[in-house]
Request: fold
Amino acid sequence: MPFYEYRCSNCGHSLTKLQSMSAPALTTCPECKQETLVKLISASNCDLKGVGVFGNSKSPFKNDSCSASKSPCASCPNASN
Ligand SMILES: [Zn+2]
Reply:
């Protein structure tokens, strides 16, 4: 399952969440309990497929383009970190 990164636009709290690709995005901030949680689009490991930087990326997070194509994700380090 991919990690998703969220940040609260109200209090600035950020978190990462391991979610299934079909899971709905979180909207409620666990810190301030406001529905101001925003899903961030992070640099995607899947976008880097073929570049050979798996395990060397600054970000372990994947964005929606990753979940849109399952076959590249099979080679993504979705179990690491
Ligand atoms: Zn908050």
In short: The chain has one domain: 3-59. Residues 14 and 71 are 29 Å apart (CA to CA). Strands lie at 3-8, 14-18, 37-40. The first strand starts at residue 3 and ends at 8.
